[in-house]
Design brief:
Elements: H1 2-18, E1 22-28, E2 34-40, E3 50-54, E4 62-65, E5 71-74, E6 78-88, E7 105-116, E8 121-127, E9 130-136, E10 143-144, E11 148-151, H2 154-159, E12 171-174, H3 176-184, H4 192-196, H5 202-215, E13 230-248, E14 251-254, E15 258-270, E16 278-282, E17 285-297, E18 303-325, E19 330-343, E20 348-351, E21 357-358, E22 362-374, E23 377-384, E24 387-388, E25 395-412
Antiparallel strand pairs: 1-2, 1-5, 2-3, 3-4, 5-6, 6-7, 7-8, 8-9, 9-10, 11-12, 13-14, 13-15, 13-25, 15-16, 15-17, 16-18, 17-18, 18-19, 18-20, 19-22, 20-21, 22-23, 23-25, 24-25
């Protein structure tokens, strides 16, 4: 098993090397020189600190760091600007909330992604779950929009008039971004009521900035399209290679490897970053197994008896995939995860002349998979770690399955 996973890691590295996708673009260096060429489009989930650049597709790549680049643009896809900013990094998730409603700033130099360009620019920053927004225009340098979720403590409830009707440890919000927008980003048609209802999220802020820019007659009003997760549903046919081995309770049995068939469906969710290279999936399926063997025992192996297994499985692999290319067209992929197996109730190793032994109803194994997708079609080979399907410590039932899965995409949305 260890050898197989090592093999997958090596394949991952090789495929990733050849799956590099460079798009036409440019960057501006510290001397304000615009350098055109090709930039590796990683469709970054976290805002980058560097990027890979080539003058031509035949050249070797060069790593361009944030220290040597003021701006870079992957044409028609994304644009990033370097900025030295005062940034507050309070968490907005419930488990990470503090008691301070006031921003605590630190100075950092970061790449900010353009969400809306024009007279008023909206920027986006994301790093390991931390999501922040910035803006700038002709009169305001790059400034963070302030939104802080915080808890109020008992002293605030007791002594501060604004919290007299609240409970200790309840969640409050500092929505300073609304005043910032009212004072710095508006047009003659903007109303305070409109801003008071404005939610602090990417979609709402993009719409607001775009509306204000249009109202102000901005010549350039480019809105970065927000990517969404893609759902894919596939029908699956399975060709399984199964083997069962029994050890204990006075017998050692190895059934011959059997080829069987199964069917199922895959529900896959492609993540809206890194060019949809990552996905999570679940693939319930149904299959059967039948095996039989004659074993001998006693002095000089003079006694023989038949042994058989006849059962069915519902298996539910749950895992993640990585595509080395365009997941909507043609790409190799690797996957890994866990398979939960429900074995037919009261499945036994059926001995002709001794006490039968039972299988467990539920087991789990780890799996790895290597596949190739071409448009709606996909084929993959999946191998599993050995599964001990015994419900007892008195004996082992080792169930091993390797699978060739053939898939057809029914729809993608």
């Amino acid at each position: 098993m260890k050898t197989r996973f090592t093999f997958l890691i090596v394949l991952f590295s090789i495929f990733n090397l050849f799956a590099q996708k460079y798009e036409s673009g440019y960057y501006i260096d510290n001397f304000d020189t615009k350098i055109e060429g090709f930039i590796k489009n990683n469709d970054w989930r976290n805002n980058p600190k560097s990027f890979e650049f080539k003058k031509s597709l035949d050249d070797n790549n060069t790593t361009i760091s944030i220290e040597s680049c003021k701006e870079f643009n992957i044409n028609t896809i994304s644009k990033f600007t370097r900025a030295k900013v005062q940034i507050e990094k309070s968490d907005t998730k419930i488990g990470g909330l503090g008691y301070d409603k006031n921003p605590v700033f630190v100075e950092e130099t970061i790449f900010l992604k353009h969400l809306v360009s024009g007279k008023n620019i909206l920027y986006y920053y994301y790093d390991q779950g931390l999501e922040k927004f910035f803006f700038s225009n002709e009169t305001t340098k790059v400034t963070q929009l302030i939104y802080i979720k915080f808890l109020i403590d008992e002293n605030d409830v007791k002594f501060k008039e604004e919290y007299k009707n609240a409970q200790a440890n309840s969640i409050m919000q500092n929505e300073a971004y609304k005043r910032q927008l009212w004072e710095n980003v508006k047009c003659e048609q903007t109303t305070m009521n409109e801003i008071s209802k404005l939610e602090f999220n990417k979609s709402s802020l993009q719409k607001y900035f775009s509306k204000v820019n249009t109202c102000n007659g901005s010549i350039e009003n480019i809105v970065s399209n927000e990517k969404k997760a893609i759902m894919s549903v596939k029908a699956v046919a399975l060709i399984n290679s199964d083997q069962i081995k029994f050890n204990g309770s006075g017998a050692n049995i190895s059934f011959d490897r059997k080829v069987g068939f199964g069917f199922g469906a895959e529900l896959e969710l492609l993540m809206p970053f890194n060019n949809y290279k990552w996905s999570v999936f679940i693939e319930p399926s149904f299959s059967k197994y039948e095996g039989q063997k004659t074993i001998t025992s006693g002095i000089d192996n003079t006694f023989s008896q038949g042994v058989k297994v006849n059962t069915s499985f519902i298996q539910v692999p749950i895992g993640a995939k990585y595509y080395f290319g365009d997941s909507s067209k043609s790409a190799f992929y690797l996957g890994a995860g866990i398979t939960i197996t429900n074995i037919k109730e009261n499945t036994i190793i059926d001995f002709e002349s001794r006490t039968d032994l039972y299988f467990a109803n539920f087991t789990y194994t780890f799996f790895g998979t290597l596949g190739y997708k071409f448009k709606q079609f996909a084929a993959e080979f999946r191998f599993n770690s050995t599964n001990n399907a015994s419900p007892s410590n008195g004996y082992d039932i080792q169930f091993n399955r390797s699978t060739l899965a053939l898939k057809y995409e029914l729809f993608r949305k």
